[in-house]
Amino acid sequence: MDTTSTLESLKKQRTVQLTSYRKDGTPVGTPVSVVVRGDRAYFRTYDKAFKAKRLARNPEVRIAPSTFRGEATGPEARGRVRLLTEEEARPIRRLLARKYPLLQGFAVPLAHKLKRYRTLHYELTLDGD
Fold first, then answer.
1. Residue 13 is inside which H or E element, if any?
2. Handedness of CA 27, 31, 32, 37 (dihedral sign)
3. pLDDT digits (tens, 9 = 90+) for 60-78
């Protein structure tokens, strides 16, 4: 599957399974909400999440369309993530809130604030780009 058609399918997709890797190389899949802007996809998590620790160690990931619970429903694609700066994350926060008003516009930011988590935003570049 080419990266353009993968990104097109992600525009409509509500949730993707993001697979990151432990130190020993074991893959770990987690569901994330995703938005697409241009030729990149974006998602968020929080600083204390194991996923954030895995991504800091190894930016290589796989993604696949999935159910809300993270069960893959389509083909997988390989890519790399990059942690965004606070300034780069501003428009991504708005895009997430627009696509997922209740979840990413209200519930997730409130939960992060109440638990005193720092919200991290990532850019996903698919292999081949």
1. none
2. positive
3. 999 999 998 888 898 999 9
What is the domain range of residue 42?
Answer: 3-126
β-strand partners of 60:
80
Question: Which residue, among 88, 97, 84, has the nearest Cα to 33 in the 3D structure?
Answer: 97
β-pairing verdict for 119-126 and 77-83:
antiparallel
pLDDT single digits (tens) 12-29: 888 999 999 999 999 999
* Ordered DSSP codes for 19-75: EEE-TT--EEEEEEE-EEETTEEEEEEETTSHHHHHHHH--EEEEEEB-TT--B-S-
Q: Residue 105 CA to chain centroid, in angstroms?
A: 15
Number of folded domains that form the chain: 1
